Amino acid sequence: MAVGADEIDLLVSWGRLLVAVEVKTRLRGDPGDQFTPAKAARFRRAGRGLRPSPGRYDLVTVCAGRRGIEVHWLPGVC
Questions:
Q1: Using an 8 Å Cβ cutoff, are 60 and 73 in contact?
Q2: Which pLDDT value is given to residue 65?
Q3: 41-75 tens-digit pLDDT
Q4: How buried is 46 (Cβ within 10 angstroms: 0-12 exposed, 13-18 middle, 19+ buried)?
Q5: Mean pLDDT, rounded, of the chain
Q6: Quick check: 35 and 25 in contact, CB under 8 A?
Q7: Residue 38 pLDDT more than 80?
Q8: Residue 29 scores a pLDDT above 90
Q9: Which helix (H) or strand (E) holds 74?
């Protein structure tokens, strides 16, 4: 979802809580490395542009490697 020049990959409802989710994917290595402080700042700025604003910002990482697909959910990253 584009919010001005920024974006949010997913908006989900967790009970009464609105959660913005950033998804990072890589074939090898840690996809979380792509979630830099600058990216976190743009992610939060995008959330502030929504009404209502998200109450939490989460990161989901997806890595495809030799052991298959690994998905990690990291709540409250910024």
A1: yes
A2: 82
A3: 999 999 999 999 999 999 999 999 888 999 999 99
A4: buried
A5: 93
A6: no
A7: yes
A8: no
A9: strand 68-74
Q: Among residues 5, 7, 77, which one has the least CA distance to residue 47?
A: 7
Does the predicted TM-score (pTM) go above 0.70?
Answer: yes
How far CA 67 is from CA of 50, 53, 72, 78, in Å, comes to 38, 37, 14, 29
String of DSSP letters for 8-64: -SEEEEETTEEEEEEEEEESSS-GGGG--HHHHHHHHHHHHTSSSPPSEEEEEEEEE
Please give the backbone phi and psi of residue 40, each rounded to the nearest 5 degrees, phi first. Answer: -60, -40
Task: Give the dihedral of Cα atoms 69, 77, 22, 24; nearest 10 deg.
Answer: -40
| Amino acid letter, residue 11 | L
CA 64 to CA 70: how far, in whole Å?
A: 6
